[in-house]
């Protein structure tokens, strides 16, 4: 996609402090859960920056390690000044995006897309022609991406049942096929297994190699 002339999108990626993130992975990966959460965010950010339709990525986080990692990858780390929840963090990120990058569309992207492919993200962003658009996750009830055209409020409604909430708010679902990497967010061990099958990014692959080493005894106890 290097021949694209227009790069209209600013992405806002919210990342919890890894000490408390991805709690549903704790049972399967108690030893490596924080490292997995950080790796997901790093791989998601790097893939997003690889899209030809992305002008910049703002990572909204209060985790200093994540902030350093995504800054090294080329993103902008934005402190989660509201510290009041996911949607509030995204509203803050959208406000920063509007101030620093006026005239661009803003898209909220989940931070747990370790198999994200830049080409698939580009296809999704190119299809975001409505004032507000969104991508339904693979289970069918959540949202992995919510996009708002320039000048249109993002109005994020992430949480349980967010797909229905976003559609009810007027956002248009993106019906493309072949975008599993944009839809494969990771909350459970089964989700992560599927992401690995799709092909995860290098940061997640590195942690998974530690997981495999632990499972085979090279770190002593299984993770």
Q: Whole-Å distance between the termini?
A: 39 Å
Q: Give the strand order of the largest sheet, numbering strands 1, 2, ... along the chain.
A: 3-2-1-4-6-5-7
Total DSSP E strands: 7
The number of domains: 1
Q: What is the CATH third-level topology name?
A: Spore Coat Polysaccharide Biosynthesis Protein SpsA, Chain A
- Give, in order, the helices and strands: EHEHEHEHEEHEHHH
Strand fraction equals 15-25%
> Sheet bearing the most strands, described?
7 strands, mixed
CATH architectural group: Alpha-Beta Complex
Within CATH, the superfamily carries the name Spore Coat Polysaccharide Biosynthesis Protein SpsA, Chain A
Please compute the radius of gyration using only Cα atoms: 17 Å
Quick structural gist:
With 223 residues, this protein is an alpha/beta fold. It is 39% helix and 16% strand.
Q: Any overview of this molecule?
A:
- The chain has 223 residues and is of the alpha/beta class.
- The protein has one domain: Alpha-Beta Complex (Spore Coat Polysaccharide Biosynthesis Protein SpsA, Chain A).
- It contains eight helices and seven strands; from the N terminus they run βαβαβαβαββαβααα.
- It has a seven-stranded mixed sheet with strand order 3-2-1-4-6-5-7, with helices on both faces.
- Helix 1 packs parallel to helix 2 and helix 1 (33-49) packs antiparallel against helix 8 (202-215).
- The protein is globular.
- 49% of the residues are buried.
- InterPro entries: CofC, Nucleotide-diphossugar_trans.
- Pathway: Cofactor biosynthesis; coenzyme F420 biosynthesis.
- Keywords: GTP-binding, Nucleotide-binding, Nucleotidyltransferase, Transferase.
- It is an enzyme of class 2 (transferase).
- GO terms for molecular function: GTP binding; phospholactate guanylyltransferase activity.
